Each structure stands twice: as C-alpha cells, then as structure tokens.
Amino acid sequence: MNSIYTLTTWIIPLLLCIILHEVAHGYVAYKLGDKTAWLMGRLNLNPARHFDPIGSALVPGMLWLTGSPILFGWAKPVPVDFRQLKNPKRDMGLVALAGPVSNVLLAILFVLFARLMLFVLPNDSFLTMWVMDNVKNGITFSLFLACFNLLPILPLDGGRVLSSILPPKLSNKYQETEKYGLFILIVVLFILPMMGIDIVHIFVNVLYPFFGRVVSLFM
Predict the structure, then answer these.
(1) pLDDT, tens digit, for every residue of 94-136?
(2) Cα torsion for 106, 25, 12, 144, to the nearest 10°?
(3) 41 — phi, psi (to 5°)?
C-alpha cells in the first residue's frame, strides 16, 4: 500500500516536469523562428503527445520498483530545426536553456500552490498529506531535472548551451562529440559511480542549492 501511495505522489510531478520541459523548448524555438514543434502539434500539455515508452514508463518504472532514491524520466524530445532559427548559434542555447528554466519556474509554482492549498485544505487530512507530498516531490524532481539537464554533455541542454557560447571553431569540434553522447551518459550515469566517481551528484550538488535558494524566496 505504501508503494502505491508513493507512486501516486510521483506520477503527476513527473509528468508535469518532463512535459513542460519539452514544451518550453518548442515554445522558445517557435518564438525564435522554428515552427517545427508547433506544426507537429507538440506545443500542448497532452501527455499522449509527449509519451516516450522508455523514458516515460520503463526507466521511471524500473527505478521505482528497485527502490531507487531518485525517480528519473524524460518525454519524447520536441523536434527543433536549428537551421530555422533567426540566429542559429545563439538561439540554440536559448532554446536549450528554456527547459531547465521552465523546471525552476515550475518548482516556484509548486511552492505557491502549496501556500494556497494550506488555506483551503484541512490541516490533518489524508488529502492534505497527499497534495503536499506531490508538491514536495514536484519541487525535488523539478530542480533535479533542471540541474541534470545542464550537464555539459551533448545532447543534454547544458551541452547545447555550452556549444552556443563557444567560439565557432571550438563549437564545431564540440558538436562532434554528440555522436558519442549516449555512450558518455552511460559511462557518467552507471560506470563511473561503480568506480566511486559520481559526477552527476557532484554537479547537481553544486547547482541544486542555488536553484533551491531561488525557489525558497517564494516560500
């Protein structure tokens, strides 16, 4: 029963975080000249439009079943044609940055929602506990997703941002690493931690307190 309860307090935050993250990419790309996501009907919050069997179900499901302390997942990436952007090199970074920024803003919305619910819901009810657990998980996952995606590894958002600010020659060489991106992520996420080198947690632990302080301003 506890496992079912825990699952129900993660599903909504997980869906909101990963869907809004992808929609933010597509919306900023649309504003900057690329209508690909808009034409494909991806600029909406319908979960079916963003469902990825592996990232939205298999991976978070396996993490939950194995008792992982971190529940992680992703939605189907929103298509972006960088050639259609008004200033491709600069705008690539802005489109990428939109995802993590949307997660920080969502964490702030979770905080504001919690403050509102404290005035509406009874203090000691099961519903209040369930709503607050959703909020707590939403804040945690939103900030973790923002931090993780800022890792400077292509094709993650941090890699796109870094590529957009590097000088053209360095940027072109750096973009060549994207074909090895999946392998690099596997090494960083699974192989290095087995060797006692947890780059992800080191990186997240640097950014998370900063984002957390921003969110705490609204508490």
Answers:
(1) 999 999 999 999 999 999 999 998 888 887 889 999 999 999 9
(2) -60
(3) 70, 30
| pLDDT for position 73 | 65
End-to-end C-alpha distance for the chain, whole angstroms = 31
* Predicted TM-score (pTM) of this structure: 0.90
Q: What's the CA gap between 89 and 40, in Å, rounded?
A: 23
Reading phi first (left if > 0) and then psi (alpha if -120 to 50, else beta), residue 2 is in: alpha
Residues that are catalytic: 22
Nearest to 157 by CA among 26, 25, 59, 29: 25
